[in-house]
């Protein structure tokens, strides 16, 4: 068996070129994998839930009728720990809560608190930190013009 030197040189060149090309393509693939491994596609903070933003500052296009309404009033006194829910009457004027008429006949009038604007959902909070109370009001039969 006689091997020609030309054929041998061509064979070695072909093997060298083939190995060189394969090595370069493998290096490029490794570079791409390294780049992907360094990129954080998933945040470490974990899953996030969608919480719709409610903007209470948007003006209500309808106007609340002035008058007396039935409301749930949750009274909380942080000095005594009393937390009671009342169904009582409230007086609304110009979209603001002005008076709470307690079931025992006592009135909490706006002279004792700042009148509170009623939100679109019929709620407002009246609080007096110095006196230690908070009233969460939910008007049940709110009417609009």
Distinctive features:
145 residues, alpha+beta, 1 helix, 7 strands, 23% helix
pLDDT averaged residue by residue:
76
Quick one: how many beta strands?
7
Radius of gyration: 38 Å
What structural class do you assign from the helix and strand content? alpha+beta
Unreliable stretches, pLDDT < 50, 5 or more residues? 23-27, 29-36
Main β sheet profile: 7 strands, antiparallel
- Into which percent range does the helicity of residues fall? 10-25%
Q: So how many helices?
A: 1
The 3D shape can be described as: rod-shaped
How far the N terminus sits from the C terminus, by CA atoms, comes to 109 Å
What is the H/E string?
Answer: HEEEEEEE
Strand percent estimate: 25-35%
Descriptive account of the structure:
By secondary structure, the protein is of the alpha+beta class. The chain has one helix at 5-38; strands at residues 67-77, 83-93, 96-101, 107-109, 116-117, 123-128, 133-139. Strands 1, 2, 3, 4, 5, 6 and 7 form a seven-stranded antiparallel beta sheet that branches. The longest helix has 34 residues, at 5-38. Residues 23-27 and 29-36 have low confidence and may be disordered.
Short description:
The protein has 145 residues and is an alpha+beta fold. The protein has one helix at residues 5-38; strands at residues 67-77, 83-93, 96-101, 107-109, 116-117, 123-128, 133-139.
């Amino acid at each position: 068996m006689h091997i020609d030197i030309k054929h041998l040189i061509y064979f070695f060149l072909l093997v060298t070129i083939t190995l060189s090309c394969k090595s370069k393509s493998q290096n490029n693939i490794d570079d791409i994998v390294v780049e992907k491994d360094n990129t954080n596609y998933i945040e470490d903070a974990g899953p996030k839930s969608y919480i719709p933003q409610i903007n209470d500052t948007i003006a209500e296009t309808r106007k609340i009728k002035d008058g007396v309404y039935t409301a749930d009033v949750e009274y909380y006194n942080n000095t005594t720990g009393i937390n009671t829910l009342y169904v009582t009457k409230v007086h609304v004027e110009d979209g603001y809560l002005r008076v709470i008429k307690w079931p025992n006949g006592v009135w909490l009038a706006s002279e004792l608190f700042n009148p509170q604007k009623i939100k679109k959902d019929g709620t407002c909070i009246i609080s007096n930190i110095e006196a230690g109370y908070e009233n969460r009001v939910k008007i049940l039969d709110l009417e609009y013009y």
